TrEMBL record:
Domain of life, source organism: Bacteria
Residue span(s) of domain Sulfatase-modifying factor enzyme-like: 179-384
Lineage: Bacteria, Pseudomonadati, Chlorobiota, Chlorobiia, Chlorobiales
Residue runs in coiled coils: none
UniProt-recorded Gene Ontology molecular function terms: formylglycine-generating oxidase activity
Protein name per UniProt: Sulfatase-modifying factor enzyme-like domain-containing protein
Native source organism of the sequence: Prosthecochloris aestuarii
Signal peptide boundaries: none
Length: 392
């Protein structure tokens, strides 16, 4: 009992300086050397004392503490998740922490939260964000359980580590580039940008290493299909044939330039430093996995028109043809560090899904800030530059 009380006192003292830059190393040292009980006591103090808004403001530090923890226990996190009257902001934050800790013992608590929601398809706003995140965490902690989405607007890609794709209904809007009415067909868009973890499976496949994917597709078959794609699309994929010939080893050719950079290479950070050709090659790989070796376009990059509609289309204004929202989350408020990673306010990319306040109504994350995203289309008529969206 005396030891537990001492640990609690240490946790209380350190929580009181959470967020102060000069105490960061001390906090990391403490969390790296305490046992599971110490971690749990620290999290209990942190969630009980520090406002959610402050925790959000120092989300990078919070994630660092979880990543550096020597041992973990999730009792305090689960208690905070299920406490009566818990706000959606707190529940989302705790779910993100549980996702980072990745302890299967927490699955039952997350299932209790999920079952507390009305699943008649009427969930909107913050409740929908919490429900969607609870489903995502359950699928991570208990892979054997397959959760039916409440509105059937999501599918999970088993070839991409269960990545969630969100249904975006088709519609007509005024395209910002030319002020003209354009129509976009229904499409599914990945909830998050592609992560380093997901992309490394692709690189491992190209290297001939074992990957946790049930497929008969071989690297040789894929390479042949990729070369055929480049040859058959000299206009749409201008320059791709020459690019593929520039280096024999595709794993090295397509690998991220920042895979060894600690600022950008954590598993849940978005992959950066990959070419447009590499991004299209990744989509072809997913398509071939899905179609059992056939070159079918199940997966591709979005066009600018599709991206803009997904990021800001006013789908709540049925029957009206309007311009898109100012930001993914709405016309107001102006961007803040709660909405996105932008203008070097963090100094590195952040793990995907870190900014629920910046998500679209359907639940697409990081559509503004964090990383630039390759588009399918060329930016100019001469096809010298490829379009980018998103920003960083």
């Amino acid at each position: 009992l005396a030891g537990k009380q001492h640990c609690r006192e240490q946790a209380r003292q350190l929580v009181s300086v959470f967020g102060r830059n000069w105490w960061k190393e001390t906090l990391v040292f403490f969390i790296a050397h305490c046992d599971a009980r110490g971690f749990d006591l620290f999290m209990a103090e942190l969630l009980g004392v520090i406002p959610v808004a402050t925790l959000r403001e120092h989300n990078t530090l919070l994630r660092t503490l979880i990543d550096e923890a020597g041992e973990t226990e999730t009792g305090a996190l689960c208690q905070a998740l299920l406490q009566p009257g818990a706000s959606s902001d707190l529940q989302l934050l705790v779910l993100e922490c549980l996702k980072a800790v990745n302890d299967p013992e927490a699955a039952d608590s997350v299932k209790l939260l999920r079952h507390s929601f009305d699943q008649d398809g009427s969930l909107t706003g913050e409740a929908k964000k919490v429900y969607d995140m609870s489903v995502e965490v359950i699928r991570l902690l208990d892979p054997d359980e397959r959760v039916a989405d409440h509105d059937h607007g999501v599918f999970y890609n088993k070839y991409e580590q269960d990545a969630a794709y969100i249904r975006i209904p088709g519609g007509t809007y005024i395209y910002s580039e030319n002020g003209q009415e354009v129509t976009v067909e229904e499409l599914y868009v990945a909830r998050y940008p592609v992560t380093n973890r997901q992309y490394r499976s692709f690189i491992a496949f190209l290297s001939g290493k074992s990957v946790d994917i049930n497929t008969s597709l071989t690297a040789k078959e894929y390479r042949q299909a990729l070369r055929s794609f480049a040859a058959d699309n000299p206009d749409d994929a201008k320059g791709m044939q020459d690019y593929l010939q520039s280096k024999k080893d595709l794993a090295k050719l397509f690998g991220s330039e920042y895979d060894d950079d600690r600022k950008f290479n954590k598993d849940d950070q978005p992959v950066v430093g990959v070419s447009w050709y590499a991004a299209r090659a990744y989509c072809l790989w997913l398509s071939m996995l899905e179609s059992k070796g056939n070159e079918k376009g199940h997966y591709r990059l979005p066009t600018e028109m599709e991206w803009e509609w997904a990021a800001g289309g006013r789908r709540d204004k049925s029957g009206e043809v309007l311009e898109v929202r100012e930001y993914p989350w709405g016309d107001k408020p102006e961007p803040t560090p709660k909405h996105a990673n932008y203008a070097q306010n963090v100094g590195a990319t952040t793990p995907v899904g870190r900014y629920p306040d910046g998500a679209t109504p359907e639940g697409l994350y990081d559509m503004a800030g964090n990383v630039w995203e390759w588009m399918e289309n060329w930016y100019d008529d001469d096809k010298d530059f490829v379009a980018l969206r998103g920003g960083s």
